[in-house]
Amino acid sequence: MQKPVYEKKSISLEMANKMIEAAKEKARAIGVPQIIAVVDEGGNLLALQRMEGALLACIQIAIDKAYSAVAYRRPTDVWYDFIKDDPPLLTGAGFFPRLVMLGGGFPIKVGDEIIGGIAVSGGHYSHDMECAKAALEVFEATSQVSK
Amino acid sequence: MQKPVYEKKSISLEMANKMIEAAKEKARAIGVPQIIAVVDEGGNLLALQRMEGALLACIQIAIDKAYSAVAYRRPTDVWYDFIKDDPPLLTGAGFFPRLVMLGGGFPIKVGDEIIGGIAVSGGHYSHDMECAKAALEVFEATSQVSK
Amino acid sequence: MQKPVYEKKSISLEMANKMIEAAKEKARAIGVPQIIAVVDEGGNLLALQRMEGALLACIQIAIDKAYSAVAYRRPTDVWYDFIKDDPPLLTGAGFFPRLVMLGGGFPIKVGDEIIGGIAVSGGHYSHDMECAKAALEVFEATSQVSK
Amino acid sequence: MQKPVYEKKSISLEMANKMIEAAKEKARAIGVPQIIAVVDEGGNLLALQRMEGALLACIQIAIDKAYSAVAYRRPTDVWYDFIKDDPPLLTGAGFFPRLVMLGGGFPIKVGDEIIGGIAVSGGHYSHDMECAKAALEVFEATSQVSK
What we know:
Chain A is an alpha+beta fold. Chain A contains 5 helices and 5 strands, in the order βαββαααββα. In chain A, β2 and β3 form a beta hairpin.
């Protein structure tokens, strides 16, 4: 038999908060109040911050976008290119539960392993992606140091 | 009056498990970790297995896809061709509760009678269909033998 | 291996309607406008009628009560005696999804086999039970004749 | 700073299936058809089997009970004693989302670490606990061997 138990990695709350700070800093720099959500590798919410003035509707969208990044194992911005020339998928994917198909959600990875997800919601998806990428850069820098 | 009661057939748990094993074997062969769900002829969940690394978002999709195969009495892959030239249906069908319109869900039939449904979710719908078909082949082979 | 497929019995729509008529007749006799629901052996709604003046809130209760009779495999009136001296069950059972613990829901059986469920909702549970029993008597009489 | 990433353990599908078989064997021995669900340490469904004749209503209860064992980090049977002398909790806990407060759900642990959860639903909670414990014994035995 396979081993009865296997190992997984998961992002720490402290790291999540550090990423959120980086996303907020970028959001302030571009003048877009954002909501930033981090989920663990099981898709469960780990941390969320809503900046003053951010769109209320984006609270759930941010949570679902971070969930989507983990639960579909890909950045949320790849969906449109992935489905646009595949008519059945284009028609059907929109109804998947909790799937957010707009940019701004990213899996957080160590090598090939997904250890969590981060999403930013509140601006145009290009703004959301920009802020989320700022957060990912902090993760990458910290991970390098801690190796 | 008609008979007050009529006979139905339903898939056994043991057969469902056998089908799931066949789908998993195909999934391993093509390298796509999958979730496989089997429902009975009433649409109620009978068995489910999630392979390591399968998309978490596909747990509910697999259950709903198997339900769709039974509850709409057709393989889930026929939906797109069925609705693509019918704009109202194309627009409206996606909002039907629990309907999954992508391939990978099939009714399990004895003759013309639906006795359950199986669905695979986790890959592109073409992968899902391939794995579900492997499961159906096992059902067909076993049914022949048991006649 | 067990047989891959097994046989089930299910109530016909025609029989369901006949039962509903009997429940309505009793409801008129006692002066309580009722809602009567019949589900099949898989818990799926088969027929429902709401009499003029019946409590709107009881539409869903009738459906869930019929579902409860099938899905928990017992008349809904037995719950209170079943749980009243079992504190954990008394505390926990009320939160079971769709469980209605008041009288008026009954499995419809052929021998020991559940082939559907009927529920009446709209009056005091004693009224609901009275009307549902009138429906079951019609089922019993018809089943005898059709043997 | 803490490490940005930490290690978790998670139960394998193969182990889950083995535990389900043990629960089914006990269920057959005591004559109670059961539904058995296993979730991973993130509360996500990993495997489920419904035995022939098991209560349909218990499909969702089994899933939620396994989720409860993981998400509240305790066996589901401890809830009643935990809340019975605490009136606000007794009143309020039942409305917690997805919480099942009846026995039959257990965290699966390696040392102090929760790596998943198993739940059995379909009988009285004492039956459910008996079957779930049979599954846990198989896990313990296998874990010892694999060390």
